[in-house]
C-alpha cells in the first residue's frame, strides 16, 4: 500500500511538472508577434503579396518573344478529286476528267516566333504590375494592423477578467477570515449562530461568483488563443503587470492621410486609373512581328526521312502584323465611362473613410479623457472603500458595527476595485484606437 502511494505521488509530480512546463507566459507583444506569424489572415495576406510577384511575371511575359512548335500527321484514305478539262491532257474537247490531288500521307512540323513591337495595352499593364505589388503590400500592412487591434482588445479583456478574479479572491479570503472569527465566537458561546450562517452564505455566494469568473476567463483565454492562431489546448498565463497611462498619446494630433486605409484607397485609385488607360489603349494600333520555319512532307507511304516514297520540303516566312481599330459600335467608349465611374466611387469612399477616421480619432480622445477622470475617481474610491472596510471591521470586532455593515463594506470595496479595473480596460481600449488613429499600431509590437 505504501508503494502504491509513492507511485501516485511520483506520477502526480510528473504530470504537475509537465503541466507547468506546457504553460505559456504571454505578454501583449508576444501575443501580437505570434498572431502575425500564425493567424490565418496574416498568412493569407503574405501569400497574396507573394502571388502579386507571379502576376507581375505573367504580365511581363507578354512583352517577351513567344515561341511555339507544332507537328501533325494526316492519313487521307480517300483523296478528293477535282474536275479538269480533258483537252489539257490531250483528250477530246468538252470531256471532263476527275483527277485526285495530294498524297495518302501528309506531315508537317513548324516552329513559330512572335514579338510585340507596339501594344499600348501591354505597356499599361507593365506599369500596373508595379502598382499591383504595392497595393498588396499596403493591404498586408492593413491586415496586420487590424489583427494587432483585435489581439490587443482580446488581450485586455482577459487581463481585466484576471484582475476581477484577483479582487474577488481577496474579498473571498477576507470574508472567510471573518467567518472563521465568528465561528470561533460561536463555538465559545460569545457569538450568534445567525451571524455565522449569514457569513457562510456570503462565502458561498463569493465562491459561486469566483467559479463564474473562472469560466468566463477560460472562454476569453480561448478567444485570445483563437485570435492569435494558437492551439486552443495550450495553457497560457498572462504576466503580472499594471496598465501604464500615458498623456503623450492624447497630445498627439492624428493625420488621417498617413493612415494605411487612405494609402490603400490611393493605391486602388492608381490601379483604376491604369485600368482606364488600358481601356483607352484599345483606340491605339498594335504592331507585332511573326516568323516561322518548318517542314512539309507528302507521300503514299508512312512518312520517314530518306524514304523514296515520301518527299520533304522546308518553308519559312516573316511577317509584320498591324492592327488598326476603326469602329466597334462605341463599346470602348462605354467601357471607359464605366472605368471613370469606378474611379469616382473610390474617391467618394476615400472622403467617407477620412471622415470616419477623424470621427474615430476624436471619439478615442474623448473616451481616454473620460476614462482618466473615471480612473482618478475610482482610485480615490478604492482608497476610501478600503478605509471604510478597515474601520467597519475594527468596529465589528469591538461590537460597534453589525455584520450587515461589514459585509456591505466588503462588497463596496470589491465594487470599487472592479470599477477601477473596468475604467483601466476602457482606457487601454481607447488608447489602442487612438494609436490606430495615429497610424502607429505596429509600435505595440516593439513596446517594452
From TrEMBL:
Gene3D superfamilies linked to this entry: Outer membrane efflux proteins (OEP) (1.20.1600.10)
Pfam families linked: OEP
SUPFAM superfamilies in the cross-refs: Outer membrane efflux proteins (OEP)
Cellular component terms (Gene Ontology): cell outer membrane; efflux pump complex
Coiled-coil spans in chain: 406-447
One annotated GO molecular function: efflux transmembrane transporter activity
Extent of the signal sequence: 1-22
Keyword line: Cell outer membrane, Coiled coil, Membrane, Signal, Transmembrane, Transmembrane beta strand, Transport
Subcellular location: Cell outer membrane
Family assignment from sequence similarity: Belongs to the outer membrane factor (OMF) (TC 1.B.17) family.
Name of the protein this chain belongs to: Outer membrane protein TolC
Species annotation: Sphingobacterium alimentarium
